[in-house]
Amino acid sequence: MNKKWYKFLLLAASIYANSAVFAQAVKSIDAPYITPGTKSAATTPVSGTDTTALDAAIGAKAVHYIVTRADDNFRLTLARWSKTAGWEFAPEHWAAPRDIPITGAADFGVDFKSAVRGLLRASELADMPVQPCFYSNSVLRVIPINELCARSTGSNTNTSTAAN
Fold first, then answer.
1. pLDDT in tens, 99-153
2. pTM here?
3. At what angle do helices 74-85 and 112-121 cross, to 10 degrees?
4. Mind giving me the DSSP string for 118-148?
């Protein structure tokens, strides 16, 4: 294969990989995440929407969600990003059996949800792929990719999903 075709194929592969058309469908639930043992959804406060993209559009200093090897693993990176974005991500919200190490560096942009999706998309070809679940009360959970995002109401489990 000549050099010109090789460059073209690299460019095409890059465009394909970054295309929104082929992006992973990530679940978003329009109900708050209820920690087991709480009384009801009515007692869980629901906060406002993520305004990161709006702030960037009107000229406010936008926060870039960057990951480096110093972040050590996905869980610690998501904890840092969640705190910056005003989302809750506690240790119990990581449902994967182990941490996923960071092996490189990347800038995932200024939108929190897109950054989380981009970071976790990197796990798809590994031995433990995971996906995010975003809840209306600004709780982020990370679960294995083969599970559904579900909210828990004590002893009952309601599996309700909607594509973003």
1. 999 999 999 999 999 999 999 999 998 889 999 999 999 999 999 999 999 765 4
2. 0.59
3. 170
4. HHHHTTTTSSS-EEEEEETTSBEEEEETTS-
pLDDT score of 60 more than 60? no
| Helix segments in the chain, DSSP class H | 3-18, 52-57, 74-85, 112-121
Q: Tally the domains of the chain.
A: 1
Q: Is the model more confident about 69 or about 5? A: 69
Query: 62 is written with which tokens?
Result: 């936008």
Give the distance, in angstroms, between the CA of residue 67 and the centroid of all CA atoms in the same chain. 13
CB count within 10 Å of CB 90 equals 12
CATH code, domain with 84: 3.55.50.70
Which domain, by its residues, includes 91?
Answer: 3-163
C-alpha 53: how far from its chain's center? 16
What pLDDT is attached to residue 80?
A: 96
